[in-house]
């Protein structure tokens, strides 16, 4: 592992993701200009890039070539941004602010927001399926399949459907966990797996990474629920207090604040334990778990 600090590494990798996205998105001048401009408006210059960071950290552990890893990181971020754009639309969460700026349907219009999400989703698969990106086509197909599963009705989109159907309901902790393992956890898990699959890894190590990824996927959501009640809109760059306002079940509404904090520490410890057998190579993933549990926005 390089000896730069975690915060320097994180800044470097966020910049790397930004440049890769900049190169991968169609130019705003390319027709249809309004759609391409809106895709760039919402994807570039914002967000923590947590999914690319996870892919980069897992890929470094398996010696993944950088071009392949950049494609995986961009594909993950494209799926994530598409989900945010659609989630913010009036037919879903109806929000006007995302990453500190007006949401796509507010800045442009609803039809454009719908198309931006659609186009980002297909761009993700365009990038990951590029001919010759992987030396081994079977490995590439596995990566594409992993992302498809994580994004669709058996992953993120399915979790969103459960979320929409849960408004006003008193979910059990187990039901809430199922929802979040799909809505948030599936793509975070795919981020770790895609990064690892971009390099060389044996199945037991991949399993260890998968356990880590499951824990941090849930951890991410528990922290998100805590921040929704404790942080302000300016810090979050999105509307704070939205879950309670929409009568959505959350970890905080079900467990309370202090037990949610305890759960976050337990999940961080689980994530850490999963990495034990991977040794020093997994240090950035350990640091990312720590970052996720202590993040302020
Ligand atoms: C519309 C198919 C579809 C899915 C939407 C991800 C999602 C599912 C909805 C977003 C709403 C939400 C609050 C989800 C839970 C946590 C989450 C994914 C927050 C946003 O992710 P961050 O914090 O955002 O990584 P940035 O802006 O930093 O990339």
From TrEMBL:
Key words, A-Z: Isoprene biosynthesis, Magnesium, Metal-binding, Transferase
Classification via Pfam families: polyprenyl_synt (PF00348)
GO biological process: terpenoid biosynthetic process
Domain of life: Bacteria
SUPFAM superfamilies: Terpenoid synthases
Cofactor(s) recorded in Swiss-Prot or TrEMBL: Mg(2+)
InterPro entries: Isoprenoid_synthase_dom_sf (IPR008949), Polyprenyl_synt (IPR000092), Polyprenyl_synt_CS (IPR033749), Prenyl_diphosphate_synthase (IPR053378)
Example of a GO MF term: metal ion binding
Record's GO cellular component terms: cytoplasm
Family, per entry: Belongs to the FPP/GGPP synthase family.
Protein name listed in UniProt: Geranyl transferase
Species in which this protein is naturally found: Candidatus Dactylopiibacterium carminicum
């Amino acid at each position: 592992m390089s000896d730069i600090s975690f915060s320097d590494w994180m800044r470097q990798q966020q910049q790397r993701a930004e440049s890769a996205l900049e190169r991968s998105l169609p130019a705003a001048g390319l027709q249809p200009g309004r759609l391409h401009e809106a895709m760039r408006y919402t994807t570039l210059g914002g967000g923590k890039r947590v999914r690319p960071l996870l892919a980069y950290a897992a890929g470094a552990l398996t010696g993944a070539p950088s071009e392949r890893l950049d494609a995986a990181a961009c594909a993950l971020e494209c799926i994530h941004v598409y989900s945010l754009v659609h989630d913010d639309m009036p037919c879903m969460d109806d929000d006007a602010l995302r990453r500190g700026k007006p949401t796509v349907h507010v800045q442009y219009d609803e039809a454009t927001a719908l198309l931006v999400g659609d186009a980002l989703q297909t761009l993700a698969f365009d990038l990951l399926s590029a001919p010759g990106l992987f030396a081994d086509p079977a490995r590439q197909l596995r990566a594409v399949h992993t992302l498809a599963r994580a994004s669709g009705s058996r992953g993120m989109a399915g979790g969103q459907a459960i979320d929409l159907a849960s408004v006003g309901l008193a979910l059990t902790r187990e039901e809430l966990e199922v929802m979040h393992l799909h809505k948030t956890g599936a793509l975070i898990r795919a981020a770790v797996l895609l990064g690892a699959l971009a390099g060389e890894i044996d199945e037991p190590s991949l399993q260890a990474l998968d356990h880590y990824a499951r824990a941090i996927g849930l951890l991410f959501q528990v922290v998100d629920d805590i921040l929704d009640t404790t942080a302000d809109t300016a810090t979050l760059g999105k509307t704070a207090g939205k879950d309670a306002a929409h009568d959505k079940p959350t970890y905080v509404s079900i467990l309370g604040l202090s037990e949610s904090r305890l759960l976050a520490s337990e999940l961080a410890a689980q994530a850490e334990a999963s990495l034990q057998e991977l040794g020093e190579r997994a240090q950035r993933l350990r640091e990312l778990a720590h970052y996720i549990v202590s993040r302020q926005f």
